Amino acid sequence: MRVSGLGLSAALLSVVFLLLAGCSSDGSKERRWYPNGKPRSEDWHSPVSTLMKYDANHDGTITRAELESGLKAEFDVADKDHTGCLDADEVRAINEERTKSDEAAASPLIDWKNKGCIDFDEYATTARSLFEQLDRDGNGKLTPNELRPARRKNQPQGEQRSNGGGY
Predict the structure, then answer these.
(1) 85: part of which helix (H) or strand (E)?
(2) Is residue 60 predicted with pLDDT exceeding 70?
(3) What is the mean pLDDT of residues 27-49?
(4) CA nearest neighbour of 47 among 156, 146, 164, 167
(5) Distance between CA 157 and CA 135 in Å, rounded?
(6) Torsion angle of the four alpha carbons 44, 46, 50, 116, in this order, in degrees rounded to the nearest 10
(7) Which residue among 28, 53, 85, 131 is least crowded, i.e. fewest CB within 10 A of its CB?
């Protein structure tokens, strides 16, 4: 039995058509591509919202004193056995909570002093570093302008400001 070129082409075209039909969607579901699996939660915490919880008097400005006081209170609650150093179980609980609430934006606690526990300075490092980065005038206060700087008109979202930084 011999198949003609036209018959073979028709058979191939039918197979391709069936494959494409199987890949089609009814359009009722929004489809997105997520390279790392499930879509991220849109309820993530920005670095600013991370610091805003330390605004004790809710005036929109965070002082270094408010930051330190809030960090110390959090650390004291986490330090269940009141040793001044968080043990592996305490650190694990904090890191799991941070990952659960902030997903990929979470900053885990790390024993960078290699003492076998996390002391207050290690606990406070991320928040302190973020505070220093945002405190552009170095006055020890994060004002609403520093927390949410206005973007100049016609400045693309990813463009750096020309304030002397960069490479």
Answers:
(1) strand 85-86
(2) yes
(3) 59
(4) 146
(5) 21
(6) 80
(7) 28
- What are the backbone dihedrals phi and psi of residue 118, each rounded to the nearest 5 degrees, phi first? -105, 115
For residue 30, is pLDDT > 60?
no
Tell me which residue of 80, 101, 104, 102 sits closest to 91, measured CA to CA.
80
77-97 residue pLDDT tens: 999 999 999 999 999 999 998
Name the percent of the chain lying above pLDDT 90: 48
Q: CATH assignment of 47-147, given 1.10.238, 1.10.1660, 1.10.150, 1.10.10?
A: 1.10.238
What are the residue ranges spanned by the domains of the chain?
Answer: 47-147
Rounded to whole angstroms, how far apart are CA atoms 106 and 129? 15
Q: What is the dihedral of CA 19, 20, 21, 25, to 10 degrees?
A: 120
What letter represents residue 5's amino acid? G
User: What pLDDT score was predicted for residue 4?
Assistant: 59
DSSP β-ladder status, 85-86 and 118-119: antiparallel
Structure token pair of residue 10? 């028709």
